[in-house]
Amino acid sequence: MSRSPVAGPVLVAGAGPVGQTAALLLARWGLPVVVLDSRPERDMVGSKSICQQRDVLDVWESVGVGAEVARRGVTWTTARTFHRDTELFSVRFAARGRSPFPPFVNISQCETERLLDERIAAEPLIEVRWGHRVVGIAQEGPADGAGAVALTCATDEGEAVVRGSYLLACSGARCDAVRTALGLSFDGQTFGDQFLICDIRTDLPGWQQERRFYFDPEWNPGRQVLIHPCPDSTFRIDWQVPPGFDLRAEETSGGLDRRIRQVIGDRPYEIVWKSVYRFHSRVVDRMRVGRVLIAGDAAHLVAPFGARGLNSGVLDAENAAWKIAFVARGWAPATLLDSYHDERHAAALENLEVTGATMRFLVPGTEEDAGRRLDVLERAAHDPAARAQVDSGRLAEPF
Questions:
Q1: What's 157's domain CATH number?
Q2: Are residues 222 and 299 in the same domain?
Q3: 246 and 330 assigned to the same domain
Q4: Tell me, what's the pLDDT at 365?
Q5: 2 pLDDT exceeds 50?
Q6: Is there a single domain that holds both residue 66 and residue 183?
Q7: Which residues make beta-bridge pairs with 190?
Q8: Residue 280: enclosing H or E segment and its boundaries?
Q9: Beta carbons of 49 and 84 less than 8 angstroms apart
C-alpha cells in the first residue's frame, strides 16, 4: 500500500522506559512523535526496576540499544531459596542457546533510561517536552481519518494545548488525571505490608551471579528478604517490613545499618539508593479509548516479584506502536487498535493473577494460609513436589 499523510505527530505522555520505547518504535515506522513529561528534566534518582528480560532486550535492540543494555547488565545464573537460614534448593538457569541475549539482565532503570535518551536525541522525528503535565484530554473527530487528540498541559508558563493524531499514555502509576479524563476505572488493591529497598555497593565474593530469597530468616522474623546482584559491585536488598515502618527512625537508631550487616556481615559498604514502598495490584477496565491507547504502569500495576512491571509495559509499547503506525498510514482500519486492548489487557490480567498468587504466598492473609505456607516450606527441604509449590515470584514470559 502507498503511504497516507499522517495528521500531526503521535503524542506520547510519559518519558519513562515505556514512553521512550514507544517513541523510538513509532519513529522507526517514520512517524513524528512528541513526548510530554510532567518533570522539569530527567531525574536520575534510584535504580527502580532492575530486571529486564530477553524479549524486552529484543525490542530495545530493534531501536539500537538492546545489545548495550545487555552488555552493561549482570545476569545471575543461580537462584537460591532459603527458609529461615537453611537453604531449601537452588535453580541454575540454562545456557542462552542460540539467542544473542541472556534470559534477563539486572541493570538500573536509570542506566536504561540514559541509553534510550541517547537514541532519542539522535532521532530527528522525536521531540521531547519536559515540564508538560497532562491535565485534560479531548478527542476531535472520528477515531480514524482526520480526527485528532488535544492535550491540555500545565506548564511553568501556564496552560498549553498540544495536538496530535493519536496518544499513547505511558505516564506512570500516578496519572490519575489521565485515567479520569479517559473515564477509566483502576480497580484492585494495595497491600498493607511495606517493603524496604537498599541498593548497596560492597564486595560479596560468590554472590555476583546469585539471587537469594529468604523466607522468615532469623534477622527478619516472620517476613522475607530478597537479594539481587547488579552492575558495579552493587546489590539490591529488599526487606518486607511492618506496616508502621519508619525509614528515618530506622536510620537514626542505627537499625538500618544493623539490617544491612545482618545480610553482608562486617565489611565496608555504601548505600547507593534506598526507598520504602507498598505493592499495588490494579488494572484499568479499557486500554483503548478512541484515539488513545494506555500502557505500562498507567494501565496496570503488579507486585514486582517476577519482574512483570516494566517488562510488560515495554511489550505494551511494542504492540501499540506498530498498530498506531498501520492505522495512521492508512494500511489498516482503526478497528486494528481494538486488538491492542484485547491482547495487552489479557496480558495484564495474567500478570495480576500470577503476581497475586505470589503475594498470597509471601504475605498470607489468614492463619490457614500461613499454616499451609509453613508446611510447604518445611517439606521443601526434602520433597521435590513441595519445592514446586514455593512461590517467590514467577519470571515473566511473553503473553
A1: 3.50.50.60
A2: no
A3: no
A4: 84
A5: no
A6: yes
A7: 280
A8: strand 280-284
A9: no
Flag whether 243 is in a domain. yes
Query: Does a structural domain hold residue 344?
Result: yes
φ, ψ dihedrals at 388, nearest 5°: -65, -20
Count of domains in the chain? 2
Indicate the helix (H) or strand (E) that contains 378.
Answer: helix 367-380
Is 70 exceeded by the pLDDT of residue 4?
Answer: no
C-alpha cell at 335: 478497528
251 CB contacts (<8 Å, ≥6 apart)?
none
Q: Are 188 and 281 in contact (CB under 8 A)?
A: yes
The average confidence (pLDDT) of the chain is 93
| Residues 245-272: tens digit of each pLDDT | 999 999 999 999 999 999 999 999 999 9
Has residue 333 been placed in a domain? Answer: yes
Cell of 46: 534510584
Residues 214-222, mean pLDDT to the nearest whole number: 93
Check whether residue 140 and residue 77 sit in a common domain: yes
Task: Give the residue numbers spanning the domain of 263.
Answer: 198-277
Q: Which of 309, 276, 301, 315 is nearest to 395 (CA)?
A: 309
In this prediction, residue 1 has a pLDDT band, given cuts at 50, 70 and 90, of very low
Q: What are phi and psi of 196, to 5 degrees?
A: -105, 125
